[in-house]
Amino acid sequence: MVYNTEGIVLRTRNMGEADKVVTLYTRDHGKVSAAARGARRPRSRLLGPTQVFTHGRYMLFKGRQLDTLSQGEIIHSYQKLREDLDDMAAAMYLTELMDLFLEDGEPSPDLFQLLQMTLQLGSAGRFPLALRIFELRLMALLGYEPQLQQCLSCGSQVMDAVAFSAEGGVVCENCRSQVSRIRSIGKGTYEWMKRLSQWDLERAAILHPSPAVLQEIQTVMAEYIAFRLDRPLKSLQFLQSLEPQP
Ligand SMILES: [Zn+2]
After folding, report:
1. How many Å lie between the centroid of ligand 1 and the Cα of residue 176?
2. Domains (range + CATH), the chain
């Protein structure tokens, strides 16, 4: 069976002499891995469309064990993301998150749009904001939305949260001592987390939270994601190693 779909290359690995196995997140079929025969040959027409982070249109054949990617047409090559070390580390982090959290299949147009927007915003030099929006919304789309309105422990309405638990939400002043994995967050950071999770994507993308706010969100979301995954991310450690230490 042949199928055509738009997709973004999450990762690739070499197979044999000149082939590649490409893992795509596709708009219509979710996560798919497919063999791209000859894609590593310099003159292959699949060379460009199968580079990591590429957004393209693909033609695939369903296989018994592995699908085959037979044609590809580039929509956005995102070449800059493969050339700049900081950009590459950031893009690797988000594709690793997609790859770890998603099983094969599981199409989600919203998630596809989020991934596409994050790469676009990131390649425009705004990865620090784009990654924070991505983390918050990825977790929500997967059904792990961090609880930002009610206290994680007692359920009371939280007005100005000053604490976030890596178990997945804000905690009120009264419950603070009874909940584990707590980290303090500024009132401004709390407001920004709500905005970045709720506002529509185009609107959120033009916002400019301060670097200190983005840093705080990064810290609590990294702890929350690690709690959900039950393991640290290699690409996150690499990304953090590139960042200036405060
Ligand atoms: Zn409480």
Report:
1. 7
2. 2-77 (2.40.50.140), 82-242 (1.20.1440.120)
* Chain centroid to CA 107: 15
Please measure the distance between the N-terminal and C-terminal CA atoms of the chain and give it in whole angstroms: 54
Q: 214 CA distance to ligand 1 centroid (A)?
A: 25
Q: For residue 163, how far is its CA from the centre of ligand 1 (angstroms)?
A: 11
Gap from CA of 240 to ligand 1 centroid (Å): 32
C-alpha count within 13 angstroms, C-beta hemisphere, residue 110: 10
The phi and psi torsions of 102 (rounded to 5 degrees) equal -105, 140
pLDDT in tens, 86-135: 999 999 999 999 999 999 998 999 999 999 999 999 999 999 999 999 99
Report CA(224)–ligand 1 centroid distance (Å). Answer: 18
Q: Is 137 exposed, middle or buried (0-12, 13-18, 19+ CB in 10 A)?
A: buried
Q: What pTM, to 2 d.p., does this model score?
A: 0.91
